[in-house]
Amino acid sequence: MGFDLPALLTARRGQGYQLHASHLNPQLPRMLHAIGFDRVYERAEGAYLYDADGNSYADFLSGFGVFAVGRNHPVVRRALHDMLDAELADLVQFDCGLLPGLLAEKLLAQAPGLDRAYFCNSGTEAVEAALKFARNATGRPRIIFCGHAYHGLTVGSLSVNGSAEFRRGFGPLLPDTSIPLGSTDALAAELAKGDVAALIVEPVQGKGVNVSPPGFLPAARELLHAHGALLICDEVQTGIGRTGRFFSYQHDGVEPDIVTVAKALSGGFVPVGAMLAKDWIFRKLYSSMDRVVVHDSTFGSNAAAMAAGLASLAVIEDEQLVSNAERTGAALREALTGLASEYELLAEVRGRGLMVGLEFGKPRSLRLRGGWNMLQAARRGLFAQMVVGTLFHRHRILTQVAGDHMDVIKLLPPLTIGEAEVKLFCDAFADVMAEAHSGSGLMWDFGRTLVRQAVAR
User: How much is the pTM?
Assistant: First the structure.
């Protein structure tokens, strides 16, 4: 019996939620059903998802930033077909393939001051590599990270994760210390202890969309180097054009020692991560032929991932998606900031490029405080989830809450969006905000459902 993928998809159509409930994470289908997000998507193109009835959903989540070039981009698809048709001798392990060298060359051209690349399979693996390389280069054990940071969920990256809900139940972890984002005083105090290998920091934090304060990264680098420590910039979500620069640290005019990337580099097809670093850091780790595989990954430089990465970088350059992210992101934030003066529940609009955070806050008027307090008493973050749910159910726009126990929505649309999608989102968001400020309607009914679920938990 041969394998026929189209026939298998047809025969088992619509069984995804049942199979997940039986064989995978049992809480995922349960959670999606509880909030009414249990759709079955049949196909995807660009910035849109489509269900079996042909309804389109604007994707302002983009797989947590994976689909920077949009879904099913024809250039990336063609590259993968061509890679398969070439019948390459892949993953020989005892050779030096062409594609990894080409992708490293292209990536490093966008990162002046960094000299070498290590390829792996994900953002968390890139962070693991960064931590190991930094500790080896400095001979020190401790890594400093920032509160609310998110760097991954494997044990090393979890050690520098600033979210308690992810760390709980998995200790003891690696030596680490958290400081407030932007606090050079706190950083200096830790560096004075003499055991710090590096500071790892997201130029814009994924959890909460907190932008590093102006001047913090250059000042941190100066402090770190004065104490023999390194600066690691985690660009897994912010890199590859997301914030209107190829790398987000370039907004700050700083030169890191190590940079991690992933997500957008995949083109949305093949998992890939990369760690970029200075030559001396690589040479310190790979110090002799005996240590040639002291840090390695079996699948890290596979041809499919390398081809997807090269094609994605070509699309980003050819379609000028970095400048589009800057321009379209500015238009989106400007339009949303205008709504903040109209709707008191919208406390702040922040971000860079097409990484935008919408934070909600306690209303001034007594008329709205009852509903707000009800949600906060049940579980902080329910108002943001209520907005996310209404955007999805009423306007078919997919967004996400920017972190647990926070009233912040994060927008991460594909970098390909334009005026039409900006208008689509802003019109929908204004409609949702208008109903929220009315204090009644289907949105608040949904809110009460969320409260009952929170109380039951």
Answer: 0.95
